[in-house]
Each structure stands twice: as C-alpha cells, then as structure tokens.
Fold this sequence. Notes:
Chain A: Belongs to the TonB-dependent receptor family. Chain A: Its main location: membrane. Chain A: Pfam families: Plug (PF07715). Chain A: It comes from Pedobacter alluvionis. The structure holds two protein chains of two kinds. By secondary structure, chain A is mainly beta. Among the domains of chain A are: about 90 residues, Immunoglobulin-like (Sandwich), CATH 2.60.40.1120; about 130 residues, TonB-dependent receptor, plug domain (Ferric Hydroxamate Uptake Protein, Chain A, domain 1, Beta Complex), CATH 2.170.130; about 180 residues, no CATH class. In chain A, about 10% of the residues lie in helices and about 45% in strands. Chain A has a 22-stranded antiparallel β-barrel. In chain A, strand 29 and strand 30 form a beta hairpin. In chain A, helix 6 runs antiparallel to helix 7. The longest helix of chain A is centred in the N-terminal third of the chain and has 13 residues. Chain A is globular, with a radius of gyration of 34 Å. Chain B is mainly alpha-helical. Chain B has two domains: about 230 residues, Alpha Horseshoe (Serine Threonine Protein Phosphatase 5, Tetratricopeptide repeat); about 160 residues, Serine Threonine Protein Phosphatase 5, Tetratricopeptide repeat. In chain B, about 45% of the residues lie in helices and about 10% in strands. Chain B is built from 19 helices and 13 strands. The N and C termini of chain B lie far apart (about 85 Å). Strand 38 of chain A pairs antiparallel with strand 1 of chain B.
Amino acid sequence: MRRLLLMIVLLFCASLVGAQESLRGVVRDVSGKAVSGVSVKGAAVEVFSGEDGGFVLSGKAGKVRLSFSAMNFDKLDTLVSLPFSGLLEVVLVGMERQLETVEVSTGYQRLPKERATGSFLQLSGKVLNEQVGTGIIARLEGITSSLSVDRKSNGGEGYGIIIRGIGTLQGPRSPLIVLDNFPYEGDINNINPNDVESITVLRDAAAASIWGARAGNGVIVINTKKARFNDKLKVSFSGSLKVTGKPDQYYQSKISVDDFIDLENFLFDKGYYTSFEVGTARAPLSEVVELRIAARDGLINAGDAKSRIDVLRSYDLRRDLDRYVFQNATAQQYSLQMGAGSEKRNWLLSAGFDHNVSSLAAPFSRYNLKAEQNFKVTSRLTLTGNLMLTYTNSKNGRTDPSQINSATGMLPPYTRLADENGNSLPVITDYRTGYISSAGNGKFLDWRYYPLEDYKYTRSVNNVNDVLASFRASYQVLDWLKVAATYQFEQQDGKIKSVNTPQSYLVRNLVNIFSSIDAGGTLKRNIPLGSIVDQDYSLLQGHNMRAQADIDKVMGRHALSGIIGGEIRSNGTETNAGRVYGLNESTLTTSVVNYLDPVKTFVTGNLEYITNRDAFGKTLNRYVSTFANLAYTFDDRYTLSLSGRRDASNLFGLKTNDKWNPLFSSGFSWDISKEKFWRSSLISFLKLRTTFGASGNTDPRSTAVTTITYAGFNSVFTQTPYAFLSNYANPELKWERVFMFNAALDFGFRENRIKGSLEYYRKKSVDLLALTPIDLTAGVGATIVKNSGVIQGDGVDLELSSRNLTGKFSWTTDFFLNYYKDKVLKNYNSTFNGRGKLNGNVSYTGLVGYPLYGMISFKWAGLDPATGDPQGILNGAVSKNYDALMGSSLKFEDMVYHGTALPIFSGGLGNSFSYAGFTLSVRLSFKLRYYFRKNALDYGSLFIGREGNADYAKRWQKPGDELITSVPSLIYPNSNVRDEFYWGSEVNVLKGDHIRMQYVNLGYDFKPAGLKKTGFSRLQLFVVASNLGIIWRANKEGIDPDYMGIPDARSIAFGFKSSL
Amino acid sequence: MKRLIFLGMFLLLAFASCKKFLDAKSNQSQAIPETLPDLQALLDQYQHINYADGNAAEVSTDDIYLTDADLAARTENERNMYTWQRSNIFLQDSNEWFYNYRAINRTNVVLESIRKIDRNAGNAFEWDNVSGQAYYLRAKNHLRGLYVWGNAYDEQSGSELGVPLKLSADFNEPSTRATVEAGYAQVISDLKRAAAALPIKAVHVMRPSRPAAFALLARTYWSMRRYELSLLYADSCLLLKSDLLDYNLLNASAAYPIGQFNAEVLQDSYFTSPVLNNARGKINPSLYALYDANDLRRTIFFNDNKNGTFGFKGSYEGNSNFFSGLAVNEVLLIRSESLARAGKLLEALSDLNRLLRNRYRKNTFIEKSGADQKEVLDMVLLERRKELLLRGLRWVDVKRLNREGAGISFSRSVKGTVYSLKANSSAFALPIPERVIEIAGLEQNL
C-alpha cells in the first residue's frame, strides 16, 4: 500500500468554521498515515508535528502563509485565515525520488526499512538512471556503497562484483542476483534497464541469510517496475544515444619500432632465428628477419636489406589499429512504458529496443517486452501474471590484429594492415612468407591472411531468446495471514552459428593443411573446399516454485511479522555443438570428412586428425529449501528478528546427508529517537541495529568423492570414450561458512537534512576453500582445493546524504566511504614458498596476520654497475643468485611487504545541483591505500612473444646507467629467473590510490506549463559523460590500476525521457 | 483454521518427494568411477597416459647436439639440462616428475575402484584387462622415474634412494623416496600381475597387452642386469608377437618414413622435446658414422640437412614426436644380448641377423658370425646403439653398461666450455624438480 505514495497527488482539505487565535491541525500522507516531524512555518513561528501528526500554531488574526516541509515530502504552501476553527487537515505528498528508500525488498518480502534489522542498501531508479548503457549491473560501480568491481583477478572478464570484501577464494565470488523474486539464471544483460525501479543490496547476514547457501557473497535484488491499482493511464517514452571513443592504442607504452627492429637485428646476429628457419613447422618470421636472411643468403644485397628495414621503421601497428580497426562505439536505447489500474485490475506493458555497434564494428540488438497484470478475483484472492521476453542478436565485427598470437609471438610493432592507399595488406601469421607463396606449386588456395578483410568472410551470429514467465496467486487467509504460491519458468535458447566461407582464412588454412600433392602432381583435398559451419546450441530451463505464508499481526504495542515457506528449484542446461565441412551455400550440399583416420598434414608431415566438433552436454541442478523469517517489534521501537534456512541440492558427489546446509541469523534494532526521553532537535532520527548470522558458499567443483568427466569425443585410437579425472576424493572437504556481525547506527540531523548510516561489520570466513600447493608426487597437479584457513575482515561503511540547499537553487550531496581490511587468522598449509606468493596480479598470500591479498616483493639492491643485472639481498649481502633469491630458503622476513592489493578505503561522492529545470550531477569515486604490480619488461616474452614495454628504452646499457634506471640490461641468451626476479622485485610495486571521475549528468526538465500544448506531462533532455578517467593518481606512470589492459574509453550520451 | 490445515498439507506434499528430486545427476558427462567402462575410459585418456613421457633421459645423453646459437635460443631449464647442471633443469610444475605421477594416480584410482566391482563370469575378461592395464601403467611410470632419478641398479640398490612409490590415490599421503631396490621390486610385482591379467592382443597398441607386459619385464630385468630373467621375458614376448618391419619396403625419401602403430609396436607412447626436435637437434657425427652405406637406417633414420649435419626422422611415431613405447626390435635385441651374455652365441646371432636382414638393402647383408662371446656381445651392443636411438633408452643403457665396466662418459662443448658427465658419476641420477623438494621435503640427489 505504501507504494501508492509514489503517486503525485495533492489533496488539501480545510474547513473554516468559527474564529480563534490558535490553529490546530494534523499532517498526513496520502495513505492517511500521520506524518511526524513536519516543519510548519507561520509568519514568525515554526513548530513541528508530533507523533500523531498533530500540531498547534498560534498567530495573529488575519491571513497567514503556512509552509509545510519534511524530509521525503514535497513542500506545501498554503494561505490560512486566522482565527481558524476545527482541524486543519494537511496531506503531504511524497517526493518521488526519496520515497523508494522507505521499503526494501529481499526477494522474499518487501519490508519497511524502519522495521528491518539487517543492512540493506537501496539504489533508486533516479540514481541508476543518471547513467546510460545496455546493462544495469554495469551502472552499480562507483555509486554503490560496499560494492567494488574487480577487473584483475577475474582475468579482466565479466563483472567481478565484490560486496563487502572477498569471503571466498575458490568458490564463485559474484553476488547472487535476484530479479524480483527469484535468482536470475539467464544472462543478466538481458534485462532492460528501463524496467528497473530500484536495486537493493543485501549486505549483512540478516539481510542475506534468507538466501542461504548462495548468499555468502551478498545479494543484489533488482526490483522491476510494477503495475498499480487505482492509477490512470500513464505512458512514458525515453531514448538515448551513447558514443564511446576508440580504445586508446597508445595507453600501454610498448617497445618502440626502432628499438624492436634493433632487437631483432641483435637476435638475428646471435642466431636466435636459425632453428625457426629450418624447422618443419615453417614458423613465421618477421619482415626484418626475412630481409636479413635474404641478405645473408645473397638474394638481395645488404644495403638493400638495410634500406628496406629502415622503411619499416616508419610504420606503427598502433596507428593502423587506430585508423583501420577501431571505431567509436555507439549504443542506442529506446524504451516505451504504459500502465493503468482500476480497483480490481491493473496492467503494465513495456518495450525496449537497444542497438549497439562495438568499437570493432560488431552489431548487437536487443528487444525487450514485458507485461504484467494483477487481478483481484475476490477481496482475498489476487492473481498476478508476468511475462518477460528478450531477444538478442549479435554479429561478429572486425578481428583485432593486436590479439593475433603466432608461433613466433604477436605481430611485430611495424606490421602494416593497409598500404598508403588504404588497401588491405596481408600479415605474417602462421607460416613463413616464402613458404606459403610456393607451397603446393600454385595448386593451393591463397594462404595469406588479411586481417582487415577476413572478418567479412566469416558470418558469426549469436541469437539468444529468453522467456521468463511467472504466475502468482496470493490469498489473504486471515487479516494477519496471507499465503501465496509463485511459479516461475525461464527458458533461454542460445544459438551461435559461424559460417566461415571458402574465402575466409580459417577455411583456406585448414584446406591447405589437409591437402596433399602426390608424385604425379595431383592435388588431393582431405577437407573439401566449401564453407565450414560451426553451430552451438544451448538451452537453459529453470523452474521455480515457492509456497510462502506471510504473517503480519499487530496487537497493541506488539507487532509480529514474518514469512515461512519452502521452494524447489530446478535448472537444466543442454548444449550441443557441431561442425559441417564443405558446405556449398548455393546448393546447401555438404561433404563428409574422415574423422577416423589421421591425415598426413602438408606443412609438418605429421599425422593429424580432422577436428570433430560434435559435442553434447547436459547439466541439471536442483535445490530444495525451507526458510523462515520472523520479526517482533515492541512499541515501534524495539525489533528482534530471527531467520533460518536450510538448503539441499543435488550437487555432484555430495552424500545425501551432507546436502542439507542449515544457516541462520538474528538481529535487533532500537529506534532511539522514538524513546520518550529523546528530545533532540539536532538529531531527529537515531536508530541502532545489530545482527549476527551465517551464510554459506558452495563450490560445485569441490566434492568429497572422486569424479571423472567424459570427453565429448571418443578416443580416435581405440574408438572408445575416454575420461578425465575432474575431482579428487577429499573426504576432509567441508563447506565454507561466512559469519557476519553487523552493528549500525542510522541517523538523521535537523529534520533529516543530513541523514545517513554508519555500519561496522566483522566478517569471518571459516574453512575457506583455497587452491593450496601440493606435492607433485601426489599426481593431482600443482595445487588442490582444500579447506585452507580462516580469514577475518573488519569493515566500516559510512553513507551520508544531505540536502545542502533547498528552494529554487537546490544542492544535494551523497557520499559513501567504505573501509575494509582483512587478515588471515589461520592457514592450514603454512609452507612459505617465496616466488609462489607473487603469482599473477592479485594472489592469495595466505600469511597469517596479513591480508588475504597482500602485496609482497623481493628486496631490490639495484642493478649491478658492471653488467646491469638485477640484484637482490641474500643473507644480508647483495646477490645475483636468483634461484636462491626466490627459492625455498627464502623467508618472509627477507621480502618486502607493501600492504594489501585490494583497497582499504574506497568510496564515492555525488553532488547534484538543480536550478530552473536544470539538474547537474557529478560523481567521483576513489580507492585508497593499496598496491599493484606494474607490467615489467620481460626479455623472455620479448624474445619469444614479441611483447615488451617501452621500458626497453630505459634499460641499463653502460656503467653509470644503474644510477638512473632500474631496468636490467639486455643479455643473450636470456635468463628467465633473472626476468622473474626483476618482475617480482619491489621496484615494480606501485601505489594504487586514485580518484576517478565516474560521470557527469546534465539534464533539463521542461516546465509542465510550457508542455501543455505538446501533450507531454513531462519532458527531460539529458547528456551524460562517463568513463571520464582518473583525475588523481598516486603512481607517476599514468597507469590506471583498475585495468589490466586498455581502460574503457570515455563516452558521451544524449537522450530524453518523456511522459504523456 | 481449516485454511491453515490446508496450507500445512500442501507444504507436506510439496516436500515429500524431495529425496528423489535431489537424486538427479547434476552433470550428465560426470560420473563417479564405479563401472568397468568408467575405469577403462580413464586409462584411455591418451594425452595423460600415452603422450606424456618425459624427455630428460634423452636430452641428458649425447646422441644429439645443438649449435651454440640454437642452444642459446632455448629456455634456461633446457640449457641447464643439456649441460648436466644440478639445479633448475625442470619447469616448476609441468615437468615429467608430475606427468609420471599423474599417470600413476590414475592407475591407483582404477585399482582402488575396481576392488569395489564384483568380478564374475560375465565381466572377468574386462575386469582383468582393466586391472592389468592399470598395473602395467603404474609399473611403466615408476620405472621411468627410476631410470631418470635413480642410480643404476646394483648391489648398493638396497640402500640407495630411488623414487617415491605411490600405491594409493590418496593425495594426503606423504611422499618418501623408496630405495632403488624396492622400486624395482614394485615394478616387477606390478608387471607380473599385469602380464597375468592382460589379454594377448589389445584393442589397439595404445593399450598394453600381455606381450607388452612381458617386454617391459624384459626391459626391467635387462636394466637390472638380471639377464637370465630378461631372456625369459623377452622370449615370452616374442612367442606372442615377433613381427618385424622390412625397411626395404619403406620410402626413405618421405619426411617420416616409418609409420605410426606399425607392426613392430607393442605399446605406444611418446615424448616431445623442443631441444631434440630436428629443427635444431643434430645427430652426433660419431653416431651417424656407425651406419654403413647399405644400412637402410642411414637414410630412413636421418635427414640430410644439406650442410653436413643430419636430423632424426626415424621415429616410430611417423612424425616429429619421439617414440618411447615398446617395440619388437627392442625385445629382439634384449633377447640377443641376454643370449650372448649366457654364452648362447648362435642363438644370439640368429636374433641379430634376423633384425639386420630387415634393416639392410636387399641382398647386400652379410650374416654376422662369431665365436667369441665378447665379440658377439659387442656386435649386439653396437646394433642396439644403432637401432634404438632417440627412444629415451640410451640413458639407462649407459648407466647399466658403466656398471658392467664400459666406462662411457658424456661430454659437450658449449661456446668453448666443455661440460661432461663422468662414467658412474652420481650425477647420472638427475636432480629432482625443486618444487617437489620444497613441498614434499624429499632428499635431493647430489
């Protein structure tokens, strides 16, 4: 019912009878509930409404202007004649943007925030809509307290959302995402952001424990817009266009073309390329190396070779990437919504359309349709039907040549993609240039690869169809008891079809490799010439059923509310993949290839099998849960809550007895400001909340029995199925548990002009599953999942919002600051393996008493003045014995501990100004007190992979250089332990602290009066600039510590929102 | 109240059948290995079982050399191994120590699981076959480890450290190095069980068979210098399978003249090596000089790099991978040598001549003869050297011959520095990967 407050209704009743000098009145909201704390200003006096909404004001006789204002309500001015007899009844209307914070949703129930003991964070549609984009989740970063996005340890992929610090090492880290009532199993980017009304983040155990074993990482509940009863027809339409710049090719400072060519010359003189030259793999050699070979073999003269190499010095692959490969990305989004409601029925219909073109010119379209209907069959029975349809279609764009990785590394930095007239040029990828031009004596297909053209010959289409339908019947059994049954069905079909036409390099290369020419010169193709078509289908089906009873009973000063219920869920996926060779697209005929017998391949002469891609897969996850949640409130001031949940699943390898995993939580809250003794006009609202509870984390990969996984194919030799060991029996394995204690203070100052909350929490994860190094002799790998330890984290979340200025020019600020620091309390495997602690960008150090992800490095003793070798410190003396410097005898005390690799402080600051219809919102975010390891020059990967950064130019070259550089000298042959030591040394660890400009949004709302003739009731135009980059950083090298590669480019979006 | 009873009944009904609901399989391609086909599928996982042999034993001999420039372009581990360094010769994690024990772990999973399967008249053949394969593969991998990290078998083997013997799939079980003596005893015991259980012919040579088990027993006893027993088992093998390829029928000009899974192969496995690969690996000239003009192996085994150097193309894999399985020619040579050492010279020569007739150009081969034991033995050893190169066998061969007093040392020159490995040096037991020493606390070879 509170939702009705969202409506903007103005009612004003007053009766003018009699004549007295004082005025009595009462303030209510539109639902008739008394509103306390309302400021009532007369000519010279100000009073506040009491708990029953009543106020008494006295004044001189005559007309007086009264103004009513309160947090969350629109200001109301009215003229009253004094004396005034009877009761002045004032109805205040809730402010649209503020009201949503009143109620929070857990996915199981919506409950008033003031009666919640848990830690809920509500993001209103208004804040979410200050950004533009296809996905809703991407908008959360930087505006959501307690939430951070980790782009590094997740391999730079996906949304590595972390809520309140990491509680697991091995298990899934992402929070559970709930759409309205049920976890959303499909692709979260299917959801139309315009359908989202608000998002609730469940942060502590009491809030999340209702989700049980999946809530260990926190829960994000997405609430979609709902139809309303007693609502007149409303139509709204919005649209936006977002343009994102090209990725900055020059962001990563790479080795210069000159330096690279000099290095290739150096390596050539050392004979580095000789074995590639004679190898049967015909490994591709770069243009410089080929020219040197030609000159050495007397095919061209040395001067020629040199001048041709010098021409290459003027090219730059990055310039071509920028010019020919990347473009500005665009994203268009349109959305239409309409809805209305009578007393018995209501409906809502929305449609969305998105069309994006990526920076590689890959198009993506999404069509959303959503319909909802509620029907009150009787006064007790309500039926709800909901349908959400999503269709997406994406196609391949250009290929990014900077990702091509051949047997001799990435493309050299002087590679040209097009000539001076813009005509596409071939690049050297799989084989030597001379080899592919002569192989097959002209009988072969052109073997060159044109990166700028090739994508045109491959048509890859990815279609996803998602249907989400739910049906709900709720029945008011007694006035305090409601039962409801909900069923939701979801089906997501995915189909990827890639047609590689005969012109594509993939087809030409495969056909050539599997061709042979016999003694008579006859060409035999074991893969027929024609399109190679790969098809992948996936089908996801989910059934959710929930039966739930809601209790809501008030008896005098006692109020009891709660839910009890159970649910069963079943999610199945089926996949199949296949490949067709030799499709003739005009006649739709295909050819068969021989998968059974190996074919002598042309290049190496090795026997190889033609790839068979046929594969089938099927998974089925089932869950049964029971849950209960009860809250008892006394006198509106004290609330005690309890909740518990048990989950069972068919997770593989669990014994049935272990499948049930009970979890609980309890909480208490005390509204101090409602106490009789509380008489503070400064602190108008003060509430204390505290909770404790447990949630769990299950890693489906960790089981207590040995399991095997069948390869999708038979062994080509024995023609029998073969299988991998996928899990090693570990009877000692236990589920991870996360315990959380939360204590919070909600407060409001000066009639909630400033309000906020301060929360302290302690999070303890026990029996943490972690990859633990294991003796290779066990035969199960270098690491194994074990219950490895206990970590404890302490955090403080501060959220503040203030209305600094109200009136014509208004200014609001919101700010959040998160502090989080964890440490390892116990580590069951305490072997200290010096170099092993440095793996990757962010890795689990497991040192007791130190953070989970600590940044440690090798002590640095500068470069050797004589040779430019990196030096460390071993037993107090300068050393170059890298094996010893990094080996097993290395103690933690011998290393440098910098601090944590995850920020201790992070936060955001948003300011919003509005004046005469204009609104300007600016949002900053920051991360402080952490360290990262920068990419260091690695000669090994420079030689083998042609990957090196510009530090190459700063390398030690002559005695004395050690005073100005820490980049080691170039040596040949290379030593990888030397590279590794340098990479892991303290000189490459930098401070990660930075402040980022998240976005700026400027909007203009046309005045309703001005819109009268147009038929619009509301029209807003806006422009948003986002990914504005870092405005301050601690490192001096211009590195964005949040990104592994090139940071997201800046974007600007224009759009409008309108309502009829 | 009626309404409440109704609600309660509804909930009861909903959860009554939940046990059955939860028994559904969560991933169709996953299984708990509990049937014979499941266990066979684990052993047919050829990437880990057949195609993961190590190359250390071959890189550490001197059949192949690299130019200084080619060597410098290799990784540091490879350079260290090539020059017989005592540390950092293996990758930290992906090394042959791990690959051996990974295969052993699979066999232990099979052997532990098969005990829970009832052996009956209906499944006896499969049951025996699977358990025989597992015993064979466990023995094969322990033996490979003993060859690389253990000293040659001799009177001291009861007190010298070999490799850990893993007989359980439990990864929590700590590892300790067993003596060389215990290692060989375990290998023999496993192989005898395998020979008893395996079928005479396997579905494919990727799987072991009884003749392959006999052949591996013959190789084991041969490397222990127990020649009376190596004779016995080589003979047992050859009774079941003794086909030889006639090299006259091969096309010497082909890139790889000898076919994969050819008639001689008893059980297939291979190793790869970037160092030995014929892109850079050159045949030691003194080895090449051993082949005379009519010896077909001269052109079938070696490709002429046209610059005075030769590469190897004679792998029984039919490609650039190095065959390290078992083949009839090796067994024939084991029998010939064992016969010669037993003084049965005519029979020894008969085996040798049978092999060489198939290796020499038609009608050019002059049958070997001799009456002096040493002379015949040397003839057999020479042909062994010429026939079985680059199969990972030379390392153990030299180790055991040095125990016979052969005094074979290795030496290599890199950029003017001479590196050498003296006969009977303890450095013939390679250093164990450092990571294993660090985590398991094993004793390192000195």
